[in-house]
Write a structure and sequence with these properties.
Blueprint lengths: L4 E4 L3 H12 L3 E5 L3 H11 L4 E4 L3 H6 L6 E4 L5 H13 L5 E4 L5 H13 L3 E8 L1 H7 L2 E5 L2 H14 L2 E2 L2 E2 L9 H30 L4 H11 L7 H11 L22 H12 L4 H13 L2 H11 L11 H33 L5 H7 L10 H11 L10 H24 L4 H13 L6 H12 L3 E2 L6 E2 L13
Helix pairs in contact: 1-6, 8-11, 8-12, 8-14, 9-10, 11-12, 12-18, 14-17, 14-18, 15-16
This protein binds nicotinamide 8-bromo-adenine dinucleotide phosphate.
The site of nicotinamide 8-bromo-adenine dinucleotide phosphate (NBP) has 22 residues, from α1, α4 and α6.
Length: 475
């Protein structure tokens, strides 16, 4: 009997997705560049379902029912191209190649073209939820043709987690749409984590609370507006004791964050598209600064550390930090969704923002009850120009606004950096201005570069000699 789906690339993600499919009753063909991984999977988990092992790509492809569905789970980048080329030698028109790795959406657009020129379908699918999600039910964001989706939907919607009876897997749009949505998901995840880190830093550094105490504060936030997976695991991480007996484990961890690139890609795309996603970008830069420990040590020695002494944190201060976190989080999501809106127009993807919020509710790292509000918001205001202008969120931000300002003031006065809190607030304040200060920028640009300006009272572009004596620099 032939297999329903094949998985090639059996490191943690591929192996767990293959087991997930088998546990859901699909017959799964297995392949990996080096055979040990295939053999190990068969030896350790072969009894979980129906698998067909293979040692060559030819054998692997031959073990699949037509039209064939192959899920590639190899390292993002060149390996994906290598595997696609190998598969194309053996697969046939109408077959479907799905890349489930964290590929750059531009690579996906290129690969989709190459594969569809050969008469096959290519689906670029973002998979979120880490290794546990891959096994138990991830959130999956496929991009490709409707025809390919109709063929693979019965498999992938069954593998994905469901929330309120809706699978966290749906067609996002053509070509790179799925990987783009996954990229922005990761960007939002960066911002979300940075905001949590800033709340922690204030409580730890300015208010002198212990990791365990902060863990309890976060545990208390699990039940309110902030209810989310990331808040839940923050409480757990802060509560964890060092197995070597040195107190809270988090206090023993080096403060240098690593990154694999999806946050940076999100920021790069936003810069290309001209979308102001300040929270995500600050989160990427905060990781970059954290990665310069020598420079930070030298700067602290020369310039001094925190300003002023620690403060007492009563319930009022803790509540304010929670409110600032929530308001900043709304801004970060508003920015991420705006980026999706702009990209959707740019690449003709016709993204459904409510559907995106729906499939992010389970399986993925940013899952939160908050996404239900976003989903409802897009259902009732599909054309709102910003999430911040949807009733639920505008009311929430207005309610949190004073606390948000107070928290940023305390951070600034104590010299403790809160780039994501502060830049979210700056974005919010910039957004709330019918008339901002860019009139002056235009004047300057016209002065030195004759870039022209437009007037508030007349149509057309204008240029003027700005200096009265004619000595201005000419471009
Ligand atoms: P890795 O990203 O570590 O990739 C290892 C796999 O790639 C192995 O199967 C390896 O084969 C294969 N491979 C490489 Br490397 N070069 C190859 C080549 N030239 N030809 C064929 N196969 C090659 O695995 P992972 O952590 O399971 O992640 C897989 C994908 O899923 C990545 O794109 C990742 O970014 C994405 N992702 C990961 C997570 C996560 O939590 N880890 C979450 C969501 C998405 P070998 O065994 O022969 O060396």
């Amino acid at each position: 009997e032939l297999a329903d789906i094949g998985v090639t690339g059996l490191a943690v993600m591929g192996a767990n997705l293959a087991r997930n499919a088998a546990r859901k009753g699909f017959r799964v063909a297995l392949n990996n560049r080096s055979n040990e991984k295939t053999e190990t999977l068969l030896a350790e988990h072969g009894q979980e379902g129906s698998f067909i092992g293979s040692s060559t790509i030819a054998e692997f492809v031959a073990s699949l029912a037509k039209p064939r569905v192959v899920l590639i789970m190899v390292k993002a980048g060149k390996p994906v191209d290598i595997v696609i080329d190998e598969l194309l030698e053996h697969m046939e028109p109408e077959d479907i190649i799905v890349d489930g790795g964290n590929s750059l959406f531009e690579d996906t657009r290129r690969r989709e073209k190459t594969v569809s020129d050969r008469g096959l379908h290519f689906v670029g699918m973002g998979v979120s939820g880490g290794e546990e999600g891959a096994l138990e039910g991830p959130s999956m964001m496929p991009g490709g043709t409707r025809q390919a989706w109709d063929r693979i939907a019965p498999i992938f919607t069954k593998m994905a987690v469901s929330v309120d009876g809706l699978p966290c897997c749906a067609l996002m749009g053509p070509d790179g749409a799925g990987h783009y949505v996954k990229m922005v998901h990761n960007g939002i995840e960066y911002a979300d984590m940075q905001l949590i880190t800033e709340a922690y830093d204030l409580l730890r550094t300015v208010y002198g609370r212990s990791a365990a105490e902060i863990g309890e504060i976060f545990a208390g936030w699990k039940t309110g507006d902030l209810d989310s997976y990331l808040i839940e695991i923050t409480a757990a991480v802060l509560a964890k004791q060092d197995p070597q007996g040195k107190g809270a484990l988090v206090d023993m961890i080096r403060d240098e964050a690593e990154q694999k690139g999806t946050g940076r890609w999100t920021a790069q795309s936003a810069l290309e598209l001209g979308v102001p996603i300040t929270a995500i970008t600050e989160a990427v830069f905060a990781r970059a600064l954290s990665g310069r420990p020598e420079q930070r040590r030298a700067a602290e020695a020369t310039l001094g550390g925190m300003r002023g002494g620690t403060l007492e944190a009563g319930q009022a201060e803790i509540d304010k930090i929670r409110d600032a976190l929530y308001a900043s989080k709304i801004v970060a999501y508003a920015q991420g969704f705006e980026q999706l809106t702009v990209a959707s127009k740019q690449y003709n993807w016709d993204l459904d923002l409510g559907l995106i919020a729906t499939i992010w509710r389970g399986g993925c790292i940013i899952r939160a009850s908050f996404l239900d509000r976003i989903r409802e918001g897009y259902a009732s205001h599909p054309d709102a120009q910003s999430l911040l202008l949807q009733e639920y969120f505008s009311a929430a931000v207005l309610k949190a606004e004073q606390a948000w300002r107070d928290v940023v003031v305390v951070a600034v006065q104590h010299g403790v950096a809160v780039p994501a809190f502060a830049s979210s607030l700056a974005y919010y304040d910039g957004l709330r201005r019918t008339r901002g200060p860019a009139n002056l920028l235009q004047g300057l640009r016209d002065y030195f570069g004759a870039h022209t300006y437009r007037r508030t009272d007349q149509e057309g572009s204008f240029h003027i000699r700005w200096s009265q004596d004619g000595t201005e620099v000419k471009s």
